[in-house]
Amino acid sequence: MANVKLLADLGLAMLLSALEAVALVGFWFTQGMKQWAAQGQWVPDPTGRYLLVLSTASASAAAIAYGLAWADLPKAMAAQAVMATLFALLLFLVAGTAWLKRLRRNRRRRRLRRERLRWHESQRDGSTPASASVRRRRWRL
Fold first, then answer.
1. What is the reported pTM?
2. pLDDT tens digits for 42-64?
3. What is the maximum span of the chain, computed from C-alpha positions, in angstroms?
């Protein structure tokens, strides 16, 4: 009886982990296919979908681990806890990357807006030309 429980525990641990990994790889593959099919055209940013899928996967893996702990299946519970941790780490990486991208874009916009205002102010004065650094940076994107 103990061997059957051990086999069920190990089998369930491997099966659930494999299913979650295949589902995540399949999702990433479909998102990549959408970008490939667009062939250089604009594609909506999939970051929101990534965040939704990873947060749901992490929460569901943690809930499954909790249920497996109640069912007294320690190996499957440990495997699900590890999967929940990995999904949470991926979630933080995706969220951090999206946050940094947004921060860089906002800083760039703010810098360009500041330089444009300086350039317009210097043109209004008429007496002093725009500084060389503003003129040089104005055309660099």
1. 0.71
2. 778 888 899 999 999 999 999 99
3. 94
